[in-house]
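Lab notebook, bench 4. The sequencing result for the construct came back, and we need a structural model before the next group meeting so we can plan mutations. Quick request posted to the team channel:

Model the 3D structure of this chain.
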Amino acid sequence: MNVCFSILAASIALSGCAQVGIFQRKDAQGEVRAPIVADTPVPDAGAQSAEALDTTTPEQRRAAAAPVASGARVLGTTVASLGSPTEPGFWLKTPLVKSEMAGSVKNRANGKSASVMLIPIEAEATAGSRMSLPAMRLIDASLTDLTEVEVSVTP
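Done. Here's the predicted structure in token form:
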């Protein structure tokens, strides 16, 4: 019951963020891009496949895959594993940041990148990170292996 209430409360809180510009990104021309986290529904409780668990829209995937504007600052590299597949959106929980901020990840093996919300976790900077299912799929990372990613903060 507490988990359901927590998810509901977080969903309500985050749903208003898109209205005030939180979790939105601007592209190189200054156009507002699709939200990174907000407005993505939680998967159905019975979802079993990666496709069913990934509730992002094609528009959100295109926006997250768009090239990052120049001026991004590389924070470092981390080894990412799959985070909770029931948490929607494009995010990376990492010890490389101390507060939530917009950023990007680049798969070092294939060069594919995704815009994500960087979410801090308490751990040594050398500890691994957890990435959302949609972000892992977007950068063509294995859902069962560890993937080395370069993490950047976007302006």
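The chain has five helices and eight strands.
Will bring this to the meeting.
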